UniProtKB/TrEMBL annotation:
SUPFAM superfamilies: SGNH hydrolase. Pfam families: Lipase_GDSL_2. This is SGNH hydrolase-type esterase domain-containing protein. Residues 116-283 form the SGNH hydrolase-type esterase domain. InterPro entries: Ester_Hydrolysis_Enzymes, SGNH_hydro, SGNH_hydro_sf. It comes from Bacteroides stercoris CC31F. GO terms for molecular function: hydrolase activity, acting on ester bonds. Coiled coil: none annotated. Residues 1-25 form the signal peptide. Keywords: Signal. The keyword Signal applies.
Amino acid sequence: MADLRFAVCCAVLALLFLPVQRNYAQDVLPGCPRLQKTAFDCDTLRIYGQRTDTLPIPLITLPAAFRQLGGNELIDSIGILKPFWEKLRMLRLGIAVDTVRIVHVGDSHIRGHIFPETTGGLLQRTFGALSYTDMGINGAFCTTFTRPDRVADIAALHPDLVILSFGTNESHNRRYNSILHYRQMEELVCMLRKSLPDVPMLMTTPPGSYDSFRQRRRRRTYKINPRTAVAVQTIRRFADANGLAVWDMYETFGGVRRACLNWQEARLMRPDHVHYLPEGYALQGEMFYRALLKAYNDYCSQ
């Protein structure tokens, strides 16, 4: 009997230590990924998911004559430019490959090309696949573009952002009327929105200019155009009431007290005291680029 019990115990122990063969109805599921692989995937998602891709804003050496400058920033109280910033962000991250298109419409300051081409060139070097087209007409008012054919030309470019730069010629009318100016901007913007309903718009204010006078038997004299400041406030009021962003170039370069004096004392204005030397327009373009880049960084940091 003792021998029988011993044999049973040995058999039980042998069964306990035999390798277990598991049966599955399907292939074995893979185990958890390695930590290194998981960490890489999470980092990639974190980079693409969070808005931390801000860019350095280059420094600009301003002329020594420039004093009492204002803040250089875009005013966008309702965030109308957010879809545009997102397109730039996706472009820079390589998620989107479509070209981002900007159309800059305006008067002779834009027709001279240097201001918009400076801004456009800097944006292209920063973001890559970006086109920046300027459409300027010498002597243009904003009403110059309130024609179906000209609005159609703008729409045909399929812009992601439209920039409107007017105000100099409006303010040089000595019978300037801010109510009329407001209505003229309203007409242009309404026409553009009908053709480009989902495209944000950004306005810029004029940089400042002088009135000229010629008295009998005396040389021509120049006086700061006082209507520029009124036109600037009209543009800002219109932009705020109608959901447009605005870059106040007039205030950026010194406003009522110093805008015109800064340009003249730095010898960056042409003899007509309305237009600017190439170096002046290039400086305007660089400052506009800096304001755009700061607004982009603010969006990415939200």
